[in-house]
Amino acid sequence: MSGPKGFANGDELIAELAAIVGAGNCLSSQSDTAPYASDGRGLFTGSVAAVVKPATTAEVSAVVSACAHAGCGVVPHGGNTGLCGGTAPGPDGRDVVVSLERMNKVRLVDPANDTMTVDAGMILQNVQAAAAEADRYFPLSLNAEGSCQIGGNIATNAGGNAVLRYGNTRELILGIEAVLPDGSVFSDLRGLRKNNSGYDLKQLFIGSEGTLGIVTGATLRLFPARRQIETALLALASLDDVIALYLDAREHAQEFLTAFELTPRIGLTMAMQHVPGVADPFAEPHPYYVLLELSSSQTRVGLGDLLVDLLERNLEAGRIADGVVAGSLGDAQDFWRIREGCVEAQRIAGPSYKHDVSVPISAIPGFIESTKVTLELAYPSAAVVAFGHVGDGNIHFNVCAADMDRAEFAAAQHAIEEIVFDAVMARGGSFSAEHGIGLLKRDVLLRYTTPVGIDLMRAIKLAVDPAGSLNPGKVLHAPPAVPERQMEHATQ
Ligand SMILES: Cc1cc2nc3c(=O)[nH]c(=O)nc-3n(C[C@H](O)[C@H](O)[C@H](O)COP(=O)(O)OP(=O)(O)OC[C@H]3O[C@@H](n4cnc5c(N)ncnc54)[C@H](O)[C@@H]3O)c2cc1C
């Protein structure tokens, strides 16, 4: 165990942290800490003083308290699947990474209350499985569910594939336990559905990306287990048809409509090129594909008939060009594989700029079409892949380098970003619908948020974390005190 570079009392701090979590759960050598020095996409790499892996809330509290006394930063680390650099430590070797991976247990299942209380380090897939074991359904679902943690989902207010029916993570959380920057513990895991006693403090921690507290536990809202699922993959000629189909499905399937996911032709082509097992189920290519899912916890409702009725009506109306209905779970998985393969293929195909935006649903066709034209005129060798959660108005508007010269593509980043975000904001949208801010989008947050909004965010951060020690520099640029901290380090 070697002491951190960043500050004089580093060896003492490491010894203190090791005493709290056990020597085997306190890493400080460069080789041991290296996997925790970068965010999951490898966009940002910092320098770690130590990585600690507490097993209980009391240990997290003691770790954070020790760090507060030592004057170092604390970076919460979940599954490291976040897409905005939120887990990257700072550059000066003064941040302690707190990994929640050992806090991975179900604390309590309460079927009568339809709630489950879990440790924050539980992998999302294990949370879903624990709910299923209790004959319940926890609906948060995203492609990273095999490695992201529920604490990370809460910290980023994750969205995913079932928001249309069940809402974002925020809607799924009834209680939070979190360690504050001074080590004190806020705990309200009562799982109440009604509670108007003062400010709703749990909301502070949901979506705040580890800048206000380390989430250590949560009480989750459960739903009845799904007894019927019907999935169809539909081919459409235009985005206007996509929206018309969505409105019709929403009107007629109502609460049974659980997913409405868009993949453009280029996304399917890329997936077939790069991802094994992805195939085009249609005889001819089509401009757009929609994965439509209906589900119900009841067996009395004939979901199959409802789907057939929906598809026949929209075929007759000319909105659907072609379609296939899943006859088995395997078919449904193949359809989802196309949607997921679209994402995976872009990662394999080369660099891309990812814009995770939302606009009002009615504005989706105009936004995608006109922004695509603007970008194609400016950068004819790049390729736009616009896909995602249409039912939530959330489009992943990605611009891939494709045949564009890599240096030119790198130089064009800000110009591309401006074209996309200006188009979004002009339509009353959001430049960050799901993935958050982290380090990546701090300047964009400043550009598109009102001064009153930014001042309010700064005031909250200052009130909860006056030393600025929790996930320093994430979401909001660090206040002037932190550059001073770096200067102090530079002279040591
Ligand atoms: C293939 C893929 C698909 C994805 N699909 C979606 C999607 O559909 N919808 C969506 O919203 N996101 C999606 N994401 C993004 C990502 O999976 C989510 O943001 C996820 O919620 C992050 O969880 P994590 O445990 O990996 O968090 P991390 O990446 O470890 O951390 C993310 C942020 O939260 C903080 N944090 C982590 N744990 C805690 C904690 N216990 N307490 C306080 N702060 C904490 C970190 O400091 C960091 O700022 C996807 C990512 C990938 C790679």
From TrEMBL:
Record Pfam families: FAD-oxidase_C, FAD_binding_4
Gene Ontology biological-process entries: respiratory electron transport chain
Lineage: superkingdom: Bacteria
UniProt keyword Oxidoreductase, yes or no: yes
Domain FAD-binding PCMH-type residue range list: 44-225
Alphabetical list of InterPro entries matching this protein: FAD-bd_oxidored_4_C, FAD-bd_PCMH, FAD-bd_PCMH-like_sf, FAD-bd_PCMH_sub1, FAD-bd_PCMH_sub2, FAD-linked_Oxase-like_C, FAD-oxidored/transferase_4, Oxid_FAD_bind_N
Entry similarity comment: Belongs to the FAD-binding oxidoreductase/transferase type 4 family.
Native source species: Pseudaminobacter soli
Annotated keywords: FAD, Flavoprotein, Oxidoreductase
GO molecular function: FAD binding; oxidoreductase activity
The keyword Ubl conjugation is assigned to this record: no
Record-given protein name: FAD-binding oxidoreductase
Cofactor: FAD
